[in-house]
Amino acid sequence: MPTITLADDHRILLEPMRVLIERDTDLRVVSMVASGVEALAAIRDLRPDIALLDLAMPAPGGLQILRALARPSDERIDTRIVFLTASIGEAEIVQAVTLGVAGIMLKESVPEELIQCLSSVLRGERWLPRQLVGHALATTMKRYREASQQLTAREREIARGVAHGLSNRDIAVRLGISEGTVKIHLHNIFGKLELESRSQLAFCIGADPAGPGSAVQID
To answer: What's the CATH class of domain 3-127?
Structure first.
């Protein structure tokens, strides 16, 4: 049976969510925690299929947890992160999506939407309502397209390699240059595009963060 971890600093919300989720989905709740520290520990220890996190928990918050899980390491954690939040700004939306968040839900949403979201994420889809994330992502892509004109032909080749999931070594071999040269080019690319990570660069190059058919349009 697939599993889920629930994390919200308002403990009073956890039990009603557990009842709703276990009643209306195939998910089994394996932990309920009230802080970012507990949430990250539960994800690493229990490896649930999904973690439903409050974005604004005591540090580390939802974005910090997502960033920690996205960071390359020897341990592979495939838990898919869904944010449940009272509000979210455009900068936070862009960070969450580029870091690979599986879903974003507002707390004002009806329970049926939460069930639809979790069911979709469990199927491997992403739940990114256009009315919530559309403007932020469109603005980011417009800024990226304008800034990308500053990239050299070589920098564009390296950026495409990152978008295809290639390591620095793979890119170096493919282009016949040293790995150190790739790192220098990446540093310049991040500076020109005002990006912080490979995942953000891959998002921008890919244009559509969810990919065909993987995002859910909420009418």
So the answer is: alpha beta
